Amino acid sequence: MEYSSFCSALLLLTNFDFKTVKDAFLQEQKNCQLCAADSALALSSALKVSTPAKPSSQSVVCEFCNIKGHTEAQCFKRCDARESILKQ
Predict the structure, then answer these.
(1) Which domain of life is it from (predicted)?
(2) Which of 3, 11, 19, 88 is the most buried (most CB within 10 A)?
(3) What is the pTM of this model?
(4) What is the rounded CA–CA span in Å between residue 55 and residue 51?
């Protein structure tokens, strides 16, 4: 963590006694905790927005055989047809 700004602010205090400095440190700690919580929340929200949901296997329809549950790249009928063509 970067405390240079906090240290500079401490030097500007008009009353530089133990209680004032202690209160300043406690407030800084609370601010850091709030910032960390806000950052975690923002990161969590960003990941939810940027990560597309995977379609369920039942919503996927193969473009080769028109059967639900798999894609054309996973289609056994397509693989069989391709092998049959290559053999000819």
Answers:
(1) Eukaryota
(2) 3
(3) 0.39
(4) 12
For 16, the 3-state DSSP assignment is coil
Residue-level pLDDT, tens digit, the chain, 88 residues: 566 777 778 778 788 888 888 888 888 888 877 766 666 666 666 666 555 566 666 688 888 888 888 888 888 888 888 888 777 6
- DSSP string of 40-80? HHHHHHHHHHHSPPPPPTTT-B-TTT--BTS-GGG-HHHHH
- Give the span between the Cα atoms of 54 and 56, in whole angstroms: 6
61 near 51, Cβ under 8 Å? no
At 55, which amino acid appears? P
